[in-house]
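pasting input
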Amino acid sequence: MRVVALCGMGFGTSLMLKMFIGEILEAHGVKAEVHAWDLGSFKGQDADIVVAPTDMKKHLEGYQGRVVLIGNLTDRQEIEEKLLPVVREFLDAQP
Amino acid sequence: MLEFIVEFFSTPAIVIGVVALVGLLVQKKAAPEVVSGTTKTILGFLILGVGAGAIVGALDPITKMFMQAYDLQGFVPFDELVVASVAAKLGRETALILGLGFLVNVLLARLTPWKYIYLTGHMLWIHAGMWAIALNTLGLSTTAIVAIGSLIQGLYTTLFPAMAQPIMRKITGSDEIAFGHGQTLLNVVGAWIAKLFGKPGESAEEVKVSESWSFFRDMAISMSIIMLIVAIPAALFAGPEYVEQNLSGGQNFLIFALLKALGFTAGVLVLLQGVRMFIAEMVPAFRGIATKVVPGAKPALDCPVIYPYAPNSLMIGLITGTVAQVLAIALLIALRWPIPIPSMIVAFFASGSGAIFGNAVAGRRGAIFGGFFWSFAGFLLASWSMHVQLFGDLSALGAAGVGFVVPDGIAIAALIRLVGWLFGLGG
């Protein structure tokens, strides 16, 4: 599974987000590659789940992968509550 | 043999690799992670150099057209670009200040009541570069530059988040995260001034506004548009004869301007890819160390962490910041100081944060003022630093046509120069 954290530049917020996501998934025993990407170049990327701030919703319309939008980027609980169901859903959909 | 070792360990890319290697070893990472982390850090640093080269290649003719057209000196206010461009001369010092300065930050957080660990990777790198460049103008030895630079870096990364924290508590409604960005000084000063006439009860966040401005978050697009707006008229005013005879080697002047404007953005994207690669290794390593040594410390994070708390203020800042840039440029033209090319990155990331700080202490009026103040004062400061050559002759160091814009670093560099002058250094 490939999870991508997104922000405008791809090394500030998305990197923090990436570290939180990595820790959350590890705590729940989920194996995943987590990357931090910028808004400009993520479209050429292949991701199973994209995690992004809520205000990037417009940019993600029509994206083929699963999208998780986060309001408060430093609220670990919000990330966990929104991300985990999507991760489970993805894993269940796999053969 | 000894010569080889000295040269090996004074190559900037190797120094930054060693800093990453030590970070990974301290965290007791497995061998494959240590190897890939170290290699990626070095690759990131080399990619950064490729990007900087491409940018300078595109920027040089644009600034020449600009000077020919308007008889004014223009520069691009973009911190990463300056530090990347001087890497060949001061990259080693920058990398060492980055690594040792972080240790000073951890030590201060451990020993003092200011429990802040600065984790905004590109800002750590930019400031390390700024201290290296500023101290270099004083003619100090490498050892002195690294020692003093690391101390300044540690103090800066501990004290500036502490200065912003009272307002951060108002913005986020908690005491969990701190603000770690080079724009702090103008955010805080703007908010302090706004307090004098603001109405904290009337928050800008009570009004609903459209989301269509988020377009500017895609900086590849906003930067391309601005560079086209700068380059095409400059080419027109400079005239086809000048451009085709002196710069383009016969290529049509408009096509040339178009390609250079977009080539600039392409170079920036390459540069940022390099920044991304080495910062993605560095920040988790720093965080791993910090959480072990200073439990409960607050991470000082990049400015977008406050955006979700005040999206309206952010947009107000973008608008008033853009207006302020235009007015600041008009004033600078009158003064005949170097002209910063307008920057949507500054308007969005910096004026946006300035507005959020203003809104937190002074409501809607504070947001309008905070955003305006940031870009106006920020542009004057950036231009002033070029005008007085605060960082010495940046062109001679390899950074032609670019300048710093983060006010924290400019203000502290001015102090460094002042202290140096008192000791009779650097003139």
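fyi The CA atoms of residues 13 and 34 of chain A lie 14 Å apart.
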